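Supplementary material to the annual report.
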Amino acid sequence: MPALVSNGVKLVGISAAVPHTREDNQHLDSLSEKAKSEIINQVGIRYRYVSNSTETAADLCQISAEKLLDKLGWKASEIGLMILVTQTPDHIVPGSASQLQHKLGLPENAICIDVNQGCAGYVYGMSVLTGLMNAYQIPKTLLLVGDTITKIVSPKDNSLWPIFSDAGSATAFELNSEAAPMHFKLGSKGVDFEAIHVPHGGFRYPINDASLKPESISEGVVRQKNHLSMNGQAVFTFGLSKVASSINALLDEQKITALELDYLVLHQANQLLNNSIVRKTGFEAKQAPSSLYDFGNTSCATIPVTLVSQLSDELNSNSLKLMLTGFGVGLSWGSVILSTEKVQCLPMIYT
Amino acid sequence: MAQSELNRFLQVFQTLFQDGNSLINADTQFRNLEEWSSMQALIVIAAIDEHFGVTVAEREFREAKTVADLHQLTIKK
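Predicted assembly:
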């Protein structure tokens, strides 16, 4: 399928928030010195943000949205559509978007929906949001993307706990007939869904006594069936093959080379993988900013966290042509090429 | 030809380990190396992709035992 085109929508503002508590992999006693070195120097992650028991992804998105609306001078009553992308909602039922409608003071006739997506979620959410804006001619909208993924990772899982981190974000869009088109390329490969999944806790395999029993998977990896599990090698090869080829296909379709773009903002999971994707798609290393060292893998929020933490000055003052690429859970992937012009990019919010 | 390709593979493989571990040969069971780890596995997969243009499937990688087995995966494709 050729790239999806979204016309007449402009990205006007972006913000992101992380919890107060920061953990340092250098001081994670459960890790050997060798494992610390690999995670910090190869995977690229030193610091992670961990939410407390009362703070949720919706909360991190809410504060991001409130500060962004304030900065833009937008009234909550002007928002006609809000999409919340998260895998860690406040409740199983209902989705969290409707509660955020209330907490943010959005009008009761605004469209507020949850999208269950992970590492590709920022791009998926942007695709759904801008598509609906076009279809229904909604002037002002919000895309909220965040996860408190540490809440579903076993603290005794040395393969995942040193990697995952929590964050929320808000991105504002408006209809603007002069905005350059956005070009999306999305994909799914559900056959490999078990590569990243939580086995129990949904309705296929509800929680039972066995779900809560700690299991020793390998040395240093103890988790329960209601914790996140990941096959790192499978995800790595997926990134090398599907993600790189999808980026190349989008570049080819748009008849543009990597070097004609200002930045490639990749999902932040593993620096070695991102270096390989950059190499396979013709970008230069300096075009691919990284927030891994300071923020870790914040699931669906890695792209806005990277935009806010690494490109804030340029987004605020320049016109940029970007490719944003998310990939992971699903398995799924998505890229978008978009142009930005003097985006209101707020400094990182620490709750 | 095949032998020189195996040698080239071996040379690349050795550079991925500290000190360019020259004790590694085609029959080395790489998972038994002291340096082996899940991260080292990703480093090997990335290097095979970069130097030989082959993205090894995770299942095939898991079944490979020796360096020569890994080299075979780059030929089959």
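Chain A has a mean pLDDT of 96.
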